[in-house]
Specification:
2 domains, Rossmann fold, five-stranded mixed sheet, Double Stranded RNA Binding Domain, about 35% helix, 17 strands, globular
Length: about 325
């Protein structure tokens, strides 16, 4: 759907080129969701603007079927005192209108479907000046959906959204790729969501290059660690690195998400999980209830929530 050949993007100053990316040979394929990641200010927005034709490349070429097949959502703020959400989304149909600018029944159908997809039906007639940043972001996405193009470019579409809406947007974009064959490129900082939803990742480096691959390969071969140089975050486990500052080990037995959240609570509060420890915690799930059994060679006691278990462990340390 899109191909670049020896592409350089950036800006000119006093007749001199200042490239942000150079010698890019990239491809986007039909039905693919690609997440474009990198540090702030590295040039992600500039590359997107260049790919859609809003900014001239410094060098190289971009091959794309047609500019009419592209929709774009940037982070630029839109302000208006009287425009409604419906008005804004309707602009997605304007490229297809003739000189009389009359929306057809099909145009209205696509507008209404796009508003429904992002769950803004109750706000359709609300002025955009009255929207929250997150609601406006959803309306901008609906406008791109109404345009009904083969390729969507989105710059930080989940900015200003809460976790639930961020997940919903990424799932919606993935569904568009799977069921409608859309091609979607998303510039994002949502590492956890990108790893779970993207077909491929574009990783911008400080060497003006873009590394690409499937998320799992880029995690396992260390590419993510090399590019982002995580501080206190273990990407392979997906967790913040915890220091066992209590110098006390516990044996943990269980399964499922109950075990994982128990392990998280213990490590977060400074305990080391070690199979050889004589202090044992067993996570028991029965009849939709969870019990934590704490035992040592002398005693055993059950707890019905983690908070009380942690309090008991801390009290034992103080005595």
């Amino acid at each position: 759907m899109l191909q670049t050949k020896n592409l350089a993007t950036g800006y000119k100053l006093d007749g001199k080129d200042f490239p942000l990316f150079d010698n890019l040979n990239l491809n986007l394929y039909k039905g693919e969701l690609v997440c474009f990641m990198g540090s702030n200010g590295i040039g992600k927005t500039t590359l997107i603007r260049t790919l859609v034709g809003l900014q001239k490349p410094l060098r190289g070429f971009i091959e794309i079927p047609s500019q009419d097949s592209v929709a774009l959502v940037l982070t630029d703020k839109i302000t208006s005192s009287i425009m409604t959400v419906y008005d804004l989304v309707s602009y997605g149909r304007y490229p297809y209108l003739n000189w009389n600018i009359q929306l057809s029944a099909n145009d209205h159908r696509l507008i209404e479907e796009s508003i429904k997809r992002v769950h803004l039906e109750p706000l359709a007639q609300k002025r955009i000046s009255e929207l929250s940043d997150g609601q406006l972001q959803m309306a901008m996405l609906a406008k791109a959906l109404a345009q009904d193009t083969a390729i969507l470019f989105l710059d930080e579409p989940t900015a200003h959204l809460d976790l639930n809406n961020r997940v919903e947007i990424m799932n919606l974009l993935r569904t568009l790729c799977r069921t409608e064959g859309k091609t979607v490129l998303v510039a994002t900082h949502e590492l956890d969501l990108a790893l779970q939803t993207a077909d491929r990742i574009w990783l911008a480096t400080t060497e003006r290059k873009i590394l690409e691959g499937i998320p799992e390969d880029l995690v396992l071969d260390g590419t993510f660690d090399e590019v982002f140089r995580f501080k206190g975050f273990d990407l392979k486990s997906g967790k913040v690195s915890q220091e066992p500052y209590r110098k006390k080990a516990l044996q943990l037995e269980g399964q499922g998400h109950e075990y994982l959240w128990t392990k998280n609570a213990l490590e977060r509060t400074g305990y080391e999980i070690k199979a050889s420890s004589v202090i044992k915690i067993k996570v028991i799930q029965k009849d939709n209830a969870i019990t934590w059994n704490l035992s040592n060679p002398n005693t055993a006691i059950d707890f019905t929530n983690l908070s009380r278990l942690l309090d008991s462990l801390a009290k034992e340390e103080r005595t």
